[in-house]
């Protein structure tokens, strides 16, 4: 067991500054009393931290305070707010065939975005890094800001990532994401890059702004092309010893599942298989081999028998998946996320109806409202958490480091 870190004055200052910034990120103008109530800090510590953060440029002290009331011993209360444009963070979703980068201010508001398909083929790490860097620079241009203002970036990849930010490259596909991205962007741009599994970031993102907001025990399943999950237990993200907590390869052994293909992939595949038969269906209006999941869901909504059968098969399969997760992890909530989440709403009731047959501890099931932005939302949150925890070590662009 590691030795506890001593509570030095520097550590206490760092923790206090992070707590104040976290509170201000989700708040408008606040008084010292507001900050004290939210963080548990004493008045003297709160004032000292706020004044330090003002000097460093992280927060602003507001004027015209008498208009807002809040007096202390005859004096108007001091009011502060986050300097949301003090810098930016990047949230990256690095897939096998597409890269998306979002630029966010310090409140988590999106300022710019770029998403580009990538023809992977037989290219090396340097080519992939150059491509990712190009998408990031395009996102910064769309936000009207400069690379020097990036305080941190977080990148989600479709591979396990351990607690130290290293890709677990024990499978060939996972090895494709072991690029050396962090040192490369540090050398090229000076950025601190955090690496995390994409499903873990989906869990962070949905718990921040999605269906799991405020839920401490939740599993978020990325369910579009392949199934992968992120686990939050007791309010903390679970990694496991080598970053593989939440990997769903065991589904190969589950009766009625047998692999990790997701809802979009299976809806498309099963629709194509049906079109090879003589079954009458509205899906024939679409080009063979091009029927997408959304079209299957739309046809089912119009009562098409073939599409309804596909949805029934999907519901049973996903009930088995959710049932195994509920049995092993006992979460309060299981969220289906990814690009297919909007369409997956129609699966929620039939999944829930079947759950009691697959587990003694059914969880609530929901679909994330974040769509295919769920990973970048989580990546932005991860980057903001880093910035808040390390604010005393970061120097904002155009400002000198405090003495």
UniProtKB/TrEMBL annotation:
Keywords: Kinase, Transferase. It comes from the Bacteria. The lineage of its organism: Bacteria, Bacillati, Actinomycetota, Actinomycetes, Micrococcales. Residues 21-59 form the HTH iclR-type domain. This is NBD/HSP70 family sugar kinase. The keyword Metal-binding does not apply. Pfam families: HTH_IclR, ROK. Belongs to the ROK (NagC/XylR) family. GO terms for biological process: regulation of DNA-templated transcription. The keyword Transcription does not apply. One of its GO terms (molecular function) is kinase activity.
